[in-house]
Fold these 2 entries.
Entry 1:
Amino acid sequence: MREAAFFTVNAVLFFCVLASGVLVRWFHQRHLVGQISLRHDLIQSREDLETEIAQRTQSNIELRESRGC
């Protein structure tokens, strides 16, 4: 009977260690997905701003040329 209890305790502890490893990995994966998503949004915003700056610069150049300055 003593060996069965020892085996049961070891099996439960082993399962808990495996489950905690899976949980830590899952939380880490969620964190990485969030970081990648934020980085993608930041890059997209930067590209949009660069496009807007280029368009405004071009329109300013055209406006100056039309005025003859």
Entry 2:
Amino acid sequence: MIIRLGLDDYLLSKKKNVDVHLDYGALVNAHALIMGKTGMGKTTFLCQIIQQIMNINTAPRIHIMDVHGDIDVPGASSVRFSESTEYGLNPFVVSSDPHFGGVRKRVQDFITTINGCRPIGSKQEAVMRHLITDLYAANGFYADNHKSWVLNDGYQRSRPKRYPTMDDACRFSFGKLKQLIIGSDTKSGRALEELNKVTSKIYRISKQQSLPGAALDEALLEKAMTHRTEAMKYFTEYVENLETGKELEDFVKYESKDVLKSTVERFDNLKATGIFKNKLPPFDIDNPVWRYNITALREDEKRMFVEFRLQEIFSAVLEKGPVRGDEGALRDIIFIDEAHLFFRDDQNNILNTIAKEGRKFGLGLVCSSQSPTHFSEDFFSNVATKIVLGVDQMYWDNLVRKMKIESKYLQYIKPFHVIGVQMNNKGETRSRFTMVRMPDYRAETV
């Protein structure tokens, strides 16, 4: 797959017309970082690249994360996401791959993404992990059995097996809270709670009597015997009224009403964002370009949406396995406008993960941003192509250091006319910074 960028500006000054291309067969990977401040033509440039990819016979699936609603590619299958639309994402779809998928990984990915967007405390995180794992088990997906990670697992059910949803998570967590608040709403639960209280009293009395020099206190001993009798009564009541066999386990996992209540509220708040829906977005499966119009979402909602969707895309290519020679280099390529909104200098951030591991699975990533300061040096080193459309002079030192170029080259960049391109091709130890004379895309779009 070859994308034309323009003419080599230096050779053009020598009266030589030499095209500059992005040759995805020669590049180390299909990742690119496009940098340009507002008004430098980032959106126009992105649209031109996307249209060139669309015209290729075996075009990969193109995913456009449109933050401002202005990446309007003719012919694209476009879906708007907002609180009022009936479709969205399901963060609880499990990959059935025995090595890369599973319940534990999906739970951890969910919590990591939530933590990156809206941090949670360690206690709340533990309760959330227990709730989601139990929710999966209630729907027939078991963390320690990879054969259960598929929908068609061979078991007969009154209703078809399905992935849990955010609605299910809200109902399930509220049910656990209600169960805890009203004393487990079973006799065994209430007995267990009383047993726990009485045992604590016995322990305190025993501790008092074991202190050095403590005199024998008949009143305390009598009190201890009374509590022991009560404990035996509650234990017997607990055993006789067991229903599910999980009463003790639930008591340990969900002991704190306050933590459980805050987790229930977190699920309710996630549902209220409007991005987690049971109905899948109606993209045209035969259209190579899917445009996700997320303009109506708040900034934190955009971050969650993009991170969860990228997790889904990455999981899908992992399931397919490494790219074979007859497939071509790319299966999917993701375009992200204002990518700095979604980047965290964290090894678990999905942008970092795709930049490091996407190539062998046929996944490309094209990020657009206003400055280089939002991205780590590791991210820079994992991106094969860097394109400078024109950044503010205050960022030049940062750009010079990260790209290992001389600052004088940045002076030759002229918005919409001359851009700077650095490409890391296979077998090369040093990447040359090339000045490229662009076609007049603005005239073409008039």
